[in-house]
Design goal:
Order of helices and strands: HHEEEEEEEEEEEEEEEEEEE
Helix content: 10-25%
Number of domains: 3
Mean pLDDT: 78
Oligomer: single chain
Shape: elongated
CATH topology of the largest domain: Immunoglobulin-like
Length: 306
């Protein structure tokens, strides 16, 4: 085996020397020799050694406070290329355990010129996908025998529904590729964990089963009553006219409206919107058509419309 190793080294050295001699001999003729020399040198270097790679810093991707759809603060990952040739990278995550859906998480990666990542995600040059996608980091610089810094951030993309507890453990795998050849090297990074230990708060759902009922027929004591099903998690409700003016706010699931709702005579009460609210925001509006009926000498009053 020792004799064979020496032959391999001699062959490699011979190929390099011949390449240099050929380059000198043809340099004055204008013939292109660089492509042949590069290919022969890369082939000899890899054949005489072992392709390898590595990734560090992935444990910092863990997150235990998931309560919105924002990206986490970017963290720096280091990609290692100890080989005497440039390589390209692909990064994928292997789910190990947990009851959270990895397709409801997104990973974004981009190259950084600094070993420290800024808090903002750049608008271009980003590789992103779900936790089950393989990211081909095709434009990431991987010079021979050097380290490359990339920044990474994650975010939850699923519905912000209440989850009592959820965990997802992921193992990052970095693969180094040598051009279009079959030579690859795979390295596993430190595992990271996403955990939801408290319910995820979210704005309430829209008001449903909105009903309109005519109340009374006297101009001074008539109008409409709006009622709806209570919305889980809602702390109050607001009713607006079609121009967005607030007519009433209530903690109940019904209100009475007349033509003076909102504090003055309001001819714009031809359509109303009801929204549910809590500390996280408000629901999308639910609409109900109403109209001002002519009272025939007794004044106008609200009535339910189609």
């Amino acid at each position: 085996m020792k004799h064979a190793t020496n032959i391999s080294r001699i062959s490699t050295r011979t190929a390099l020397v011949l390449g240099l001699i050929l380059a000198v001999a043809l340099g004055g003729t204008g013939l292109a020799t660089a492509e042949w020399i590069i290919k022969d040198t890369v082939h000899s270097s890899v054949e005489a050694g072992t392709l390898s790679t590595g990734i560090s810093g992935t444990v910092a991707l863990g997150n235990t406070e998931i309560n919105n759809h924002d990206f986490t603060r970017p963290v720096a990952l280091t990609l290692h290329n100890p080989n005497p040739v440039p390589v390209s990278y692909s990064l994928e995550l292997d789910p190990l355990a947990g009851n959270l859906d990895p397709t409801q998480f997104e990973l974004a990666v981009w190259e950084s010129l600094s070993p420290i990542c800024s808090d903002t995600i750049p608008p271009i040059g980003i590789y992103s996908g779900t936790f089950t996608d393989s990211l081909e980091l095709s434009a990431v610089t991987a010079l021979p025998e050097s380290d490359t810094t990339v920044c990474a951030a994650t975010r939850f993309t699923g519905p912000l529904a209440s989850i009592d507890k959820g965990t997802l453990i992921m193992k990052p795998n970095l693969t180094a590729h040598l051009g279009t050849s079959a030579w690859t090297a795979v390295a596993a990074g430190d595992e990271f964990t996403h955990t939801i230990s408290t319910p995820i708060a979210s704005p309430p759902l829209p008001v449903s089963n909105l009903q309109c009922t005519d109340v009374g027929d006297h101009p001074h004591n008539s109008g409409v009553e709006l009622s709806w099903m209570p919305v889980s998690g809602a702390t109050s409700y607001q009713v607006f006219d079609r121009r967005g003016q607030l007519l009433q706010e209530t903690m109940l699931n019904s209100v009475f409206l007349d033509e003076y709702s909102g504090g003055k005579h309001n001819p714009d009460i031809t359509q109303v919107e009801v929204v549910a609210l809590n500390a996280q925001g408000n629901s999308t509006p639910t609409r109900q058509n109403i109209f001002l009926a002519q009272g025939g000498g007794m004044g106008n009053h609200l009535r339910c419309g189609l």
